[in-house]
Amino acid sequence: AQSVTQLGSHVSVSEGALVLLRCNYSSSVPPYLFWYVQYPNQGLQLLLKYTTGATLVKGINGFEAEFKKSETSFHLTKPSAHMSDAAEYFCAVSEGNFGNEKLTFGTGTRLTIIP
Amino acid sequence: GAGVSQTPSNKVTEKGKYVELRCDPISGHTALYWYRQSLGQGPEFLIYFQGTGAADDSGLPNDRFFAVRPEGSVSTLKIQRTERGDSAVYLCASSLAGGSNYGYTFGSGTRLTVV
Question: What are phi and psi of A65, to 5 degrees?
Fold first, then answer.
């Protein structure tokens, strides 16, 4: 079984400030981890993913995330927030090659950027 | 096509009616996934096809929900005797073989409203 917990359903940061969105996972096998962004009335767009190898993963739009097995975490960061980053962000986990390919999502974090 | 296409984009139906939602995956993608996203929630897994067969249908909430993919391409999600609680955005995704490695591409969804 797998699950994802996203701490903070709403996060507000000032433009230019650090963005930190938290994600903790639970998985009975080595996890495949993903961050998706969703703009209003649109589908999900992949920001980045971790499968195996390097634990610091760089994605699009300046986002990155670090897989920490000891903390079962995969927090998303961006050094400097931009107004265009305002959206809903979802963390997700799958079993990948170790089992089922379905994604299990967290409940999401709505990011607001303050001008 | 270039992306995953879902039709219709919006569907309003009366309680008790039957509805069909269609998903056209990216050409050549063997895996297809259906998710349901209720307001303020993350997407919830419904069913996953590998080719024509359902590899995992554990997320279908009850026997009113059914999905098919007869030729291994287009998929239809069918909901019988709709209830107001079925109102949600239904998302479809496709991938080459295993999405964890090759990536999942999501459609923009069908917003179903049951009145």
Answer: -145, 150
Q: What is the pLDDT of residues B72-98, one digit of tens each?
A: 999 999 999 999 999 999 999 999 877
**A98 has pLDDT over 80:** no
User: Does A1 reach chain B within 8 Å, measured CB to CB?
Assistant: no
Spell out the residues 6+ positions from residue B4 whose beta carbon is closer than 8 angstroms to its own. Answer: A43, B23, B24, B25, B26, B92, B93, B94, B105, B106, B107
3-state DSSP assignment of residue A115: coil
The radius of gyration of chain B from alpha carbons, rounded to an integer in Å, stands at 13
Nearest to A97 among B41, B59, B100 (CB): B100
Four-point Cα dihedral A90, A24, A102, B88, nearest 10: -40
Query: Is any Cβ of chain B less than 8 angstroms from the Cβ of A86?
Result: no
First-to-last alpha carbon distance for chain B, in angstroms, is 33
B43 and A106: CB-CB below 8 Å?
A: no
| Distance (Å, whole) CA B3 – CA A74 | 28
pLDDT single digits (tens) B30-53: 999 999 999 989 999 999 999 999
Q: Which two tokens stand for residue B70?
A: 């007869």
Backbone angles phi, psi at A81, to 5 degrees: -70, 145
Q: For residues B7 and B109, is the Cβ–Cβ distance under 8 A?
A: no
